[in-house]
Design a protein that fits this description.
CATH superfamily of the largest domain: ATP-grasp fold, B domain
Number of strands: 13
Largest sheet: 6 strands, antiparallel
CATH class of the largest domain: Alpha Beta
Distance between the termini: 29 Å
Number of domains: 3
Low-confidence stretches: none
CATH topology of the largest domain: D-amino Acid Aminotransferase, Chain A, domain 1
Oligomer: single chain
Helix content: 25-40%
Order of helices and strands: HEHEEHHHHEHEEHEEEEHEHEEHH
Structural class: alpha+beta
Length: 305
Amino acid sequence: MSEAQQDFGKVAVLLGGVSSEREVSLNSGGAVLKALQGAGVDAHPFDPATEALDALRQFDRVFIALHGGYGENGAIQGALEIMGIPYTGPGVMASAIGMDKFRTKLIWQAVGLPVPEYAMLEEDSDFAAVERQLGLPLFVKPAREGSSVGVVMVTKPGELPDAFKTAREHGELIMAEKGVMGGEYTVGIVNGEVLPIVKIEPATAFYDYEAKYLRDDTRYVCPADLPAAKAAEIQAGALKAFRALGATGWGRVDFLMDGGGRHYYLEVNTAPGMTSHSLVPMSASKAGMSFEALCVRILAGAHLG
């Protein structure tokens, strides 16, 4: 029996699920499963869309590779807490807050972290006033979705009402956010270690679902082409942002740059993708960590509470 098997026991890799990101989760979970099995871990797939959660009681640890919905909003974390099974990623509270972009921003603002200017939208909002306040372009997004699901870019005056209707199809809490167009970046965090920054250069207008998962022409630069002092400042801020939500384990903090070199923290991902296009594995590789080693390290951080 290998050291990995002795340490971790029988491991479930949660994948699939019922959210809008099911297909991505199946890809992520499949890659994690293969890596863990390759490392000698007694790992097994578990799809909560087709299996009763109570069946998880046979496992000693759980690697959460569910994206969106119940995978990242604290629900599955709460179930695992009740069953007493250690799991990867942030806990119940941090997962729930991290899935809510509005409340994440409130906390980050409270601890002095820069975020893009935003406004919450309702059906009776003065959309023209919001366009004037935030300027164009701006982005409209469901505040409790991930992977850019339902995100609409508004580039012309008068487009905001239709963008609101599109985003509303994916949730009730809708946010309009000022377009910060100087570059898209992300910072991975694994058990307290901040990984090299990745710059994302999509061929599309912005880093949407298609650019993230379906296209092969999105360009990634890692480490990002930022001055060393600026990169260190952003990495320290990303760790602060992660911890401000009460997050532990692993995750990813996305940020934007404007044309003047100022950065703005955008959102946190508490169960990042682990596909061939995913950013944390890319960053970990630059830090000298293989995909297999990354998966084992994440699993080693499984916890309760």
